[in-house]
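Inputs:
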Amino acid sequence: MLSGKTSRLAGLRRIGKLYLKSRIGMLGLIIILFFVLLAVLAPWIAPHDPIIQTVSSPFDIPAWATAIPAYRNTPVDQSPATWAVNSPSDIHSWNLTGQNYTASFSTVVPPQTSDTGSIFVNASLNENTAPYPENNYLPNSQAFFALTRPFEFSGPAPTGFETTVVLEPVSMTNVSTIYVNEIIQDPSGNNFSLASVNLPILSQQITISPSDNGTWKTVSIAGGLLPLSGLPAFEGSTTPASTIFHEDGTYKYILEIEGVAQGDALYPALSMRIVYEGLHLDGGAYGLLGTDNFGRDVWSQFVWGSQVSLLIGILSGIGAVGLGAAVGIASGYLGGKWDQVIGRVTDFVLVLPFLPLLIIIVSLLVVNRELYNTIYVWVILIFVALSWPFIGKIIRSQVLLVKERQYVEASRALGSGTGHILVQHILPNVMGLVYSQVALNVGGFILLEAALDFLAISVHTVKTITWGLMLTYSLPYAVNQANLSYVWWWFFPPGVAIALLSLAFVLVGYALDSIFNPKLRAR
Amino acid sequence: MGLRQYVARRAIYTIVLLFIIIAFNFFLFQVLPFVISCSSTSTYQHCFENFYLPEQPPHASLNASNYYRTLRAAISNAYGLNQPMYVRFGLYFVDMLTFNFGAHVGTAGANGPVLTTIEQKTPFTLLLLGTSTIASFVVGIGLGVVAAARRGKILDISSLAILLFLTNFPVFFLGAVLELTQIGVSGTYYAPFGAATFLKAGYLYYAGILSALFLPFLALTLISVGGVFLTQRAVMIDTVAEDYVLMARAKGLPERTVLYKHAFRNAVLPIVTAFILSLAGILAGAVITETVFAWPGLGLAIYEAVINTDFPMEQAMFLIISIMVLIATFGADVLYGFLDPRVSTG
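Outputs:
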């Protein structure tokens, strides 16, 4: 028993050594390992949810492509001022100025925001502590504070920008209206007010009245999408974005909040929670692989897409070869009536039109709501059901060869049962072929899944993205008669990946084939 | 068992298989839930056209009128849907054997008799798949023999690497790459069939067809040449290792004669079989390639039929494809019986 085990281990080790020597086998293995790593690490190496839109502006080239002369002047998309307030210490990075404020970390999160906390600011004008302003027209009637954070900016001016602040007034005393101003200060000290009463920038001025207590308000500002020529504030420039971000250096983001007193009332007090969702600068370049037509991150799609291709490819490969091997061994070893019946069924399935039948069945499954939830299982089952005969025939002929060998005959003469002969003699001689067939078929299934995606027989729920879908979506933009600058960063990665991965499995298949089938080693 | 008996047995077996396929087609389309295309959101007209005719109207507003019942009866009569299943099966069987495939159904698809559509599209599919099959076999066999003769040399390794890589390309990706290449090289866009032949007559019309044919032909050939190449190369390498080749070399025959007269003639048999089997695929069309390049062949027609649940067309194409495969398999079997005596003697 023990000796049998050790000899089998030695056999495996020998096969491993032979495999390591096979150059094409190792090449295939390395490619497969790369994509398996990609698929496994997807949650960590994909920066975005692949279906989230406007991660950046649409059709951005990859950030590294700005090194190519043709794209040299393309500004890179960046989020230089995104500061999630995740812990109490985070609020120290903000500089608060104003009158008699206190700021603290708040664990309250606005709805539909991913940040884990907000800043709680309490601002008031206290009679006892605050000096009474003699000549100032404001402070005695305003609870005013400002949050400031510096950030670095360099590179070509962006084509636009977006900022979002989410805030909730918690309590208002003697306050009639709250004004929110967003200001960006350039390194030279010029202030550009993004949201204020008196600047005609693309802004969303919000005013908060006492009735808004306890509700979250969102201030979103997008600048630079419309030309603002002719406006005095932006003379000599076409967009707010290029006016504001005209030089490299340290900029400041300032969020001003003023609570205006009610009527003649003095000493207004105001407390509110604030989440600053950051400043995003639009360019024409973003991330590792740029963005698609909806501004979705192509790299994230690419990484997540590898999961589906590998999953469907490998599971179908194992399933089809498993079934094919079982049928082939049964038909080859048992022979007689079994062989006849299996042979007829095999011939029948082989005659069926593969792709049309596949398309019909899958397209019908997709429409059925109940089956749609488990659609991958069904797709794999159909792949298996339509492709086992090819493999069964190959395995059967191998079993027929092995069965006639003298040692099998000798074993049978010694009184070995069917089970013993199958496990000890037939299986070891067929397994090599089985392994190589799995590898050879996986590539085909990966291509097949991509083909289904292309034919818009989408087997995926809306939340999934695959290489096939990426190719399908990018195709109209890649070869577009109206658009000469084709989307190479979006179109090539999935196509080349499908080809590479399916080639890699074929290479591994050939390598295994030549190891288990020494006659082929000469090739 | 003699050769004649062997051929007769294969012929009977093929015909039985054909009958089974026809029966399978009938029951497949009986079982397929066409109900789903008649959800509450689609129009009842569409449901009629897909032969979904429940006793109760699919929409409540039809209850009041007699229109639904009349229309249902009329359609049922016209298509024989009121007959019991075995009668319908018999009718269907006769229809299929006489190539009476009926008319298109579905709202968005083609109109008129299915057979007319097939007759119109067949030349295009034959043109595309015929040329590309021949080209890939000629190139694949040629390259395979030369590569096997120069095993391990630059030509062998590079053609092996390139063809293996190309074979694993998704054909729609390769198609787009070829279109981009054309734009890059010639500065003009790929004009699909309709655009290339629009309002053209005489030789210009045929020139248009050929110009539209070029890219799909190239894509199909590039994808399929790898398989032929690999088979031919493997068989050739095996054959070169045979004793009679050694003998021929020992006799002092020139290497050229040894390779092409002695080895190649024996190594070409498996490829001939592969060629005959691939002829079966010629009428099936290349669904994806024809869709990518909008080539008006049977492959595209199948795809459109599936999309529009045009099941008379689907049934017809299923049958035609199956018959082609059956004929090719039969042909290959018979050829083997002639060439390899061991097959027919069992």
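Remarks. DSSP finds 14 helices and twelve strands in chain A. Chain A touches chain B through 43 residues (CB under 8 Å).
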